[in-house]
Amino acid sequence: MANLKKTYTEKIAPALKEQFGLKHALQVPQIIKVTINTGLNTKRDPKFMEVLLDSLTRISGQKPVQTKARKSEAGFKIREGMPVGAMVTLRGTRMWDFIEKLVAVTFPRIRDFRGIPESAVDGHGNFNYGFREHTAFPEINANEVESLHGLQVVITTTAKSHKEGLALFKALGFPFKTNTK
């Protein structure tokens, strides 16, 4: 696989600069960070939290941080300070490697995948995608999985609009749905 950061710098950024008529290279939409987040749902046992932390470590190559409840919520049986999930923030080389793996390996491994809806890019040009199963990632061996869990991938950019963000992600090779009616 070609190095995605090099491709972005040499080909994608100049093309986006020309496409949107930008005067300065720093106005071109860039990727700031990738955040991978997962929640505990209703399972409160410590073993499941270890499984979450282990799978996030494998997927990201970085140690995740436990997220804790900010306030108590009786309806969800949550007290302030209870662990409610885990998250990892990727920047730099790990971020680019993760995005490259996401596009080339992970999306094609999703069962019944028909493309990403364009609504996955929000009005500020950031990308949000939720995986129902973490087994789509190549680091997770489906035979060893005791319990499935979902996770959310958020890619934060400097794009100013949905249009700019969508153009950036399409240029990076994200498989968006084609609107054929």
UniProtKB/TrEMBL annotation:
GO terms for cellular component: ribonucleoprotein complex; ribosome. Keywords: Ribonucleoprotein, Ribosomal protein, RNA-binding, rRNA-binding, tRNA-binding. The keyword Ribonucleoprotein applies. Residues 83-176 form the Large ribosomal subunit protein uL5 C-terminal domain. GO terms for biological process: translation. One of its GO terms (molecular function) is rRNA binding. Residues 26-79 form the Large ribosomal subunit protein uL5 N-terminal domain. Part of the 50S ribosomal subunit; part of the 5S rRNA/L5/L18/L25 subcomplex. Contacts the 5S rRNA and the P site tRNA. Forms a bridge to the 30S subunit in the 70S ribosome. HAMAP family: Ribosomal_uL5_B. This is 1 of the proteins that bind and probably mediate the attachment of the 5S RNA into the large ribosomal subunit, where it forms part of the central protuberance. In the 70S ribosome it contacts protein S13 of the 30S subunit (bridge B1b), connecting the 2 subunits; this bridge is implicated in subunit movement. Contacts the P site tRNA; the 5S rRNA and some of its associated proteins might help stabilize positioning of ribosome-bound tRNAs. Belongs to the universal ribosomal protein uL5 family. This is Large ribosomal subunit protein uL5.
